[in-house]
Design goal:
By secondary structure, this protein is of the alpha+beta class. The chain is about 40% helix and about 20% strand. Among the domains are: about 45 residues; about 130 residues, Umud Fragment, subunit A, CATH 2.10.109. It is rod-shaped.
Length: about 250
Amino acid sequence: MVKTIEELNREFASAKTRLASEAKKKTKSAGMPSQKPMRAEDTILQAQRAEIPNQAAASTEEQETKNQAKNAKEMSAKKSRKGGVGKELLLLGFKIALLASSAAVVLTFLFGFARMGDPAMDPAIKDGDLVLFHRYTKAGYLPGDVIAFSIDDSVQIRRVTATAGDTVDIEDGRLVINGSPQQELGIYQNTDRYEQGVSFPLTVPSGQIFVLGDNRAGSTDSRIYGCIEIDDTLGKVMTILRRRGI
């Protein structure tokens, strides 16, 4: 039996209505409202909104990483500074110890100090002055040198007036060396013999020297105890540390 066009249209409309009714029933049974199809603009906007939290999280993580790196760098710099200060202090302590050791060696083996304990060298060296002497000048003493030496368990400071081989005499209040009266600068008193002293003229033996104090009237020197051994000398006086009102 051949159907007409109208009958076919009715059947198609009925089938379409039935399918729509069944689809609505399925949507209601699932508890979900029917959704309209999303436009392209809505899809892009939704994607951008979803991306914002991800970007914020990434930015926060990047900032935390930067902060951690900065803190680590600061800690490293502090440790480096502390280490540098410690090394500088250690180096400074080493330098001070080295200088102190060098000074001790110099003062022990090259130089020495002695205190003037009487007025025998006045006015050049006063009683109480501290003198610095050089130890390694023993072999080259010359007349006019001021030296420090040990005698009778004490240290004296006197001036060399004659060396080995010289003949010393005292005549008419003047010092005579090898027959020649001496013109002594800085000596303001007569040079006299002591009654309890040595006999003149005398010749200075090898390895010895003859010494006098500048203050001739009150000096205990070679006029009393004779020539002294060079081995008993401490050294040549280099400078004076003058005591003033101490």
